[in-house]
Structure formats: C-alpha cells, structure tokens
Amino acid sequence: MAAQEVLGQTARLASSSALLQVLFRVVTFGLNAFTLRYLSRELIGVVNVRLTLLYSTVVFLAREAFRRACLSGSTKRNWTKTINLLWLTVPLGVLWSVLLGLVWLHLLEVPDPSVVPHYQAGVVAFGLSAIIELLGEPCWVLAQAHLFVRLKVIAESLSVVSKCILTVTLVILYPHWGLYIFSLAQLLYASVLVMCYVMYFVMFLGSPEATKKSFPVARVKALLPNFVEDEAFVNWREARLTWSFFKQSFLKQILTEGERYVMTFLNVLNFGDQGVYDIVNNLGSLVARFIFLPIEESFYVFFAKVLERGKAVKDQKQDDVAMAANVLELLLKLVLLIGLTITVFGYAYSQLALDIYGGSMLSSGTGPDLLRCYSLYVLFLAVNGVTECFTFALMCKEEVDRYNFVMLALSLIFLCISYFLTHWYGSVGFILANCFNMGIRIAHSIHYIHDYFKGSTYTPLAGLIPSPLLVLIYIGSGIITGFSEVFFCCDQGWMARLLHISVGALCLAATIVTMLCTESKLIHFVRSQ
C-alpha cells in the first residue's frame, strides 16, 4: 500500500475515531449529570473509579502488548500465526480477572452495603465483561490493520448507546438495585461490541468484496486458533515483541491510571470524593481525549506502516521518511495549538462549567481548581500522545526493553509523588503528579525523535514552536478572560455569565483568525486529510 494512501486512510480513521470519542465523552458527560440526580456520589465513585479500574486493568494488561506487536509492520504476514497469538489474550484475561478480582474482593476496602449495595456482584460482572471483550480481539486487530473505519464506528457506537439506554432505564425504574445496574450495562456493552465485529466478519469473509480486496483471511474458521503441522503455533518474532511490550504495558498502565490506583489502594480519598474527582476528570477530558486518543491510535498505525521498525533514517525509503517527518511536524503543531487553547481558556471558564453542570456541589470547594489544573494537563497529554505514538512505532525490541527500565523508575517516582501531593493538596495533587509524569515521558520521546532525525535535513520537532504572534494572542486572551471571570462570574446572575461567555467567544475568535493567518501549512494539511 502506497504511503500516501495509508496517510489518507489513517486520517479518515483518526477522524472517525475522534467522532467516536465525542460520542463516548458526551454520553459519559450526560450520564454523570443524570445519575447525580438519582444516585449517591459514593455509588458513582465505586463504579467510575474502583470497578472501572478493575475492567481497564484487565483488558489493558491482557491485550495492549498484543495489539502493538500485531499492528507493527506490513499487513502481508502469516495471519494464521498472528491470530493464534491474539487468542492468547483470552486465557491471559481470565488469569488477570481472577487474580485482580480476588484482590478487589478481599484486600481492598469494601464499601458500606447500605450506601453501595451488591459490590461483590459488581466485581464479578466487570471482570467477566473484560473476558467477553477479549473474545473479539482477533477481529479488532484485523479490522484495525486493514483500516476498516466504518466497522469500528458502528460497533463501538452501538455498544455505547446500548449500555446507556439500559443504564438510564434501570436507574429510573430500579434505583435501589445499586451496582446491579452498572454490572448489567457493562456486560451488555462488551457483548454488543464483540457481536458486531463477529457478525461483520461472518458476512464479509468469502464475499465478493473480500475476494476483490484479496483479504488475507478467507473463512470464518480461520479466525479461530489453528494448528499447522510442522510449523510453530505463533510467529516467534511477534511473540518476543509482544513480551517486550507486555513489560512496558504493565508500567504504562500504572502511569496512565496512577491516580486511580493510589485512590483504590491507599484510601487517600473517600468514595464520595472519588466520585467528584472522576466527574471533574471526565469533564476536563471531554474535549481533549476525543481528539488526542484517536490521533495517537491511528497515526501509530501510519508510522508503523510507512517506516520500518529499528532501521535508521538513511536506511529507509527517503520519500517515506520525508512524508513521515512532515506528518509528525504538522501533528505536533495541531495538538500543541489545541492543547494551548484548552489551557488558556480552561483557566477562566472552569468554575462556570462546573456550576452549570453540577451546581454548587461541583463549583464550590476544590472543583474549579481541579479543572483548572486539568486544563494544563491537557497540554501535556496533547504533546505526549503524538511523540509517544511515533517513538513506539519506530523502537526496535532492544530499545523497547531499555525503555522499560525508564518506565519502571518513572512508575515508582510517580506513585510516590502522587501520594505526597495528594496529602498536601488533595485531589489537585493527582493532576500535578500526572503533569510531572507526562513531562518526563515527553522529554524522553523528544530526545528519541531528535536522535532519530539527527544527521538528516528533517526537523519535525519544529512543530512544537508556535508563531510569536499567536503566543501574544494567547497571553492576551488569558489576561482578558481572567479579568472577565473576576468581574462577571459566577454569583452575579445569568446576564453577567453571558457577558463572561461573550468575552471568551471574542478572544477565541481572535485566536482562531490568528491561527488561520499564521499556520497556513497546518490548515492545508487538516483540510486535505
């Protein structure tokens, strides 16, 4: 597949994935606002922090390394061995579900049954839903490797909508069911997701469309584990790469979900405060993650396909290197500008957003400071996503192994910093610790990218330098909206709030116009791709 074609398909995948993330975040956003009026903060805290952490830990540890290894390189491979390797995620998921389920049931603090009923059933259901989701892993990797954009959009949209309809229905009709509500909804989500992928491939494989595309898997039976006589069960090169990524994924999960592990295992916040933190966290990431995560996932595939893992720049096809460097530079500029915009305007509008969303329960206390810090964290998330997706797509096995030691040290430091900052600053300390964590990871990735392109004429890291005029506009907007918040927000009535919003809208318009004038190359890239 030509590099330009891969870029076009990857951009479409990123755009569709971004729309999916909009759906997920908007649904979560609305669901939290709805359930706050029917259920206790403690119940929401247990579901969104404790049980969701169990689910995400199981699926991440069971499949993340397999995904990264099996999506590296060309789609022309022995797919029988790759599919065999992917089926190992299921027994691994069962193992993690059992081990972590026992920890969640017997070693962690059990919520008060009168406030959060049916906790044991919730642990079992969320662990089981992770195993069900892993049953669709071979189909997911095949679809992602061949850039089946519509399949991912439809499957994940249907599963999210089904989950939400069931949750809302049960919350209205049977609010006393407690965790049974979210347990049933989570099982439905996983089941619908897997069934969508399975049904698609049952209809697609063997069809004229599959034959026309020369799809490497011809029969549905080929999606199951297959033993080939006198051949290895798996591709050992992929298996060794998977093991390297597995060691890394364990550490990355701690860094990604570190604050939830600290909350869960060290009891630095009660379940009610955990619920408020999670609500603010979802609100803070509503705009950020629906853009950055799809870009990271989709362009990891692009860089892995266009450039060969472990090879120096001079040993690659120079046309592909030029395209990859240009795309990396423009992606860095894109996410940097989005991150800066959220950081600058998020500071002055955090209290207003929380007041509209959850009333005084969220807008008083540490809520606004938490969201302001999260606005800064978004900037770190933006840059880290793109720099790491390039770095991980190009690292050879030895480099991945070396990086694992860096991640181990960083994990320990991060957990210690989270613990102490939380004791000093409350839940805001979690965000500050995450900023530190992301800053170190960004520094490592920038160092790798600089060394990779050293000796060539390409400087993709120039994408991290905005134009001086745009920087001045950002500074001016931050000052103006800050004064606007002091004078108009948030206890002087709706007219004052509307004036505050109008000031922000004018500053945002000035920022966007400046972007259009100073970043013409980026604008062309966004429009064309």
UniProtKB/TrEMBL annotation:
TM segment ranges: 12-31, 43-62, 83-107, 119-141, 153-174, 180-205, 330-354, 374-396, 403-422, 461-483, 495-517
- Where is this gene product found? Endoplasmic reticulum membrane
Query: Which GO biological-process labels does this protein carry?
Result: dolichol-linked oligosaccharide biosynthetic process; glycolipid translocation
Pathway field? Protein modification; protein glycosylation
- A Gene Ontology cellular-component term: endoplasmic reticulum membrane
Alphabetically sorted, this entry's keywords are: Endoplasmic reticulum, Membrane, Transmembrane, Transmembrane helix
Specify the superkingdom: Eukaryota
Q: How does it sit in the membrane?
A: Multi-pass membrane protein
Which PANTHER family does the annotation name? Answer: ENDOPLASMIC RETICULUM MULTISPAN TRANSMEMBRANE PROTEIN-RELATED, PROTEIN RFT1 HOMOLOG
Protein's job: Intramembrane glycolipid transporter that operates in the biosynthetic pathway of dolichol-linked oligosaccharides, the glycan precursors employed in protein asparagine (N)-glycosylation. The sequential addition of sugars to dolichol pyrophosphate produces dolichol-linked oligosaccharides containing fourteen sugars, including two GlcNAcs, nine mannoses and three glucoses. Once assembled, the oligosaccharide is transferred from the lipid to nascent proteins by oligosaccharyltransferases.
Give the family from UniProt.
Answer: Belongs to the RFT1 family.
Name this polypeptide is given: Protein RFT1 homolog
